[in-house]
Specification:
551 residues, alpha+beta, Alpha-Beta Plaits, 2 domains, four-stranded antiparallel beta sheet, 20 helices, 58% helix
């Protein structure tokens, strides 16, 4: 029985071995050493240990499980970051992605240079690069390219495994060095500073004669910035404004807009009051007994993909939509915003009107617990199709493919952004998405470690292995420190955002966890999500292009 479960190759044995490796890796991954834990990455090393002691599974089962885990992980990741990708990219994301691109190009150039300088095979150096940047999807792309060229795929996996540990801690070391030597007080963003991507609430006093007597629709066309007015106070009475409401001198209006647009609205309408409406503990229902503020969750599938303006909620029910929460993002409730199942809509109005709105939008939270598996499978198929499409570049003998890593993450991002327009219900709870990502990543890492474990320790203690580790550490440390310092001194980016950008460019969630533990606010997490998709895409493409050009 023991032999059939652990040693004899079969489907049952493969499931048992992979599950055992994953379980052991996840258990030990929770241990902290000097405040640092490897998390799911420890599954990789558990697989290496199992492979070192001679544990194997059927090669076809190993290949299937490894590829399926990689596809599942990158697709779920793309689906999660997709909704906020475009807005984050527009609001300062171009600069952050450009800086992340410099990190990627510097590391890649160093890997190519080291290959020629130390006479190391480029396939080995690409593995060193993937390990130094903790980027297993790029490793998968490298292996696929080598297989397409008829070359062995074990060398990059082995060199990646040897350099991976220092790749994990190297970014953390770089963050520590920068903070110790170069970070000044002004480089640290305040914990309560509002990020530019978030909505901002302010109260303005109507003092500009140019808007006296003008209705809301006219004022909206004059400002050319998106905003919502959810409440209006006039003569001690609160009014629910509509497009036909005319402003009068002395009115007070509650405005919701992007933080950067509030100054424009203040110049247009009048002086901003000092009341802070952006605290977490504001009791909105205590402002007035006539109007109620309530969060309603969209659960009706027929609402998915429709624009907010097409529902005519204000005219039909006499309510205002002040803002919409999608995952961790707060979105401005503009008429052209396309709604998705799972969006949390903040509605202001009377009690009876809110009850009617609940029926229109659904507000049945239990329905959200049902997984939308159809969209997941459709996305996986489309991602694999995209990854298999050959892309020809001049001067490259083999066409480039996005592969199992690039295709699914791009489709995941696109479906996360545009899926609702095609009435695809892409909503998954955060826990469900984390479950998919964690399962896929642990499956991939377990198989990757198992396949490279046989020769790991022999290679690690050899002269070549020591050279891999040293060169990998330089590839990790130098681009991060150089670009991080330039980001603060030349481009004026705060340190927390720099940390998130660097962690995203290096695909290093462990370093991000460290940054979040030691820095206040969510700037690091926002920057990480902003640069991660494009950085992942660039690394996957560059891994293939470099091998085809220089091998």
């Amino acid at each position: 029985m023991f032999e059939s479960l652990f040693l004899s190759h079969s489907a049952l044995q493969a499931v048992v071995v992979i599950s055992l490796i994953s379980a052991i890796g996840l258990i030990f991954g929770k241990l902290r050493l000097w405040g640092i834990s490897l998390g799911v990455t420890f599954v990789f090393f558990a697989g290496i240990m199992a492979g070192h002691f001679g544990l194997t599974i059927d090669p076809k089962m190993l290949l299937f499980a490894e590829n399926f885990g990689l596809v599942l992980f990158v697709y779920a990741l793309g689906l999660q970051v997709g909704p906020g990708f475009m807005s984050a990219f527009r609001e300062g994301g171009v600069k952050l992605n450009a800086l992340a691109g410099v990190v990627i190009l510097l590391g890649t150039a160093m890997a190519i240079g080291f290959s020629f300088a130390f006479d190391l095979p480029l396939s080995e150096m690409m593995g060193v690069l993937c390990g130094a940047t903790t980027n297993t999807p790029a490793l998968g792309a490298s292996q696929q390219t080598l297989a397409q060229m008829g070359l062995p795929t074990t060398d990059p996996a082995l060199s990646c495994a040897v350099t991976y540990p220092l790749g994990v801690v190297g970014v953390i070391i770089a963050i520590l060095v920068m903070r110790k030597l170069w970070v000044r007080e002004r480089d640290l963003a305040g914990p309560n500073e509002e990020h530019v991507n978030n909505t901002f609430i302010a109260t303005l006093q109507v003092q500009n004669p140019g808007v006296f007597g003008k209705d809301m629709h006219t004022i909206a066309t004059l400002t050319h910035v998106p905003f919502v007015i959810s409440r209006l106070w006039r003569g001690g009475e609160v009014i629910l404004p509509s497009n036909d409401t005319h402003l009068q001198e002395g009115d007070r209006v509650m405005v919701i807009a992007s933080r950067r647009d509030v100054d424009t609205l203040e110049a247009m309408i009048g002086r901003r009051e000092s009341i802070d409406w952006n605290r977490d503990n504001v009791d909105w229902n205590a402002l007035d007994s006539k109007l109620i503020s309530r969060r309603i969750i969209i659960t009706r599938a027929d609402i998915n993909g429709r624009t907010l303006g097409s529902l005519h909620l204000r005219n039909s029910y006499g309510v205002n939509i002040s803002r919409i929460y999608r995952g961790d993002m707060s979105l401005l409730a503009t008429p052209d915003l396309r709604l998705q199942v799972g969006d949390c809509v903040v509605v202001v109005g009377g009690e009876r009107a809110l009850l009617k709105i609940e029926k229109v939008l659904g507000n049945a939270e239990k329905e959200l617990n049902e997984p939308n598996l159809t969209s997941i499978y459709i996305g996986l198929v489309l991602g694999l199709v995209l990854g298999a499409v050959p892309i020809s570049f001049p001067g490259i003998s083999f066409p480039v493919k996005l592969g199992l890593a690039g295709g699914p993450i791009i489709v995941g991002i696109l479906i996360g952004i545009y899926g609702s327009r095609f009435h695809l219900v892409t909503y998954t709870t955060r826990s469900a998405n984390l479950m998919l990502r964690g399962f896929g990543l642990s499956l991939y890492l377990a198989c990757l470690g198992l396949s490279s474990g046989g020769d790991f320790f022999e290679s690690a203690i050899s002269v070549t292995g020591a050279l891999w580790v040293g060169l990998g550490f330089l590839i990790t440390l130098l681009p991060v420190v150089v670009v991080g310092l330039a980001s603060m001194r030349i481009f004026g980016v705060d340190f927390a955002t720099v940390c998130g950008m660097l962690c995203g460019s290096m695909a290093n969630p462990m370093a991000l966890n460290y940054a979040n533990d030691t820095l206040e606010g969510d700037h690091a997490s926002v920057a990480y999500a902003t640069v991660y998709p494009l950085s992942m895409f660039l690394r996957v493409i560059l891994a293939q292009v470099v091998l085809m050009l220089f091998l």
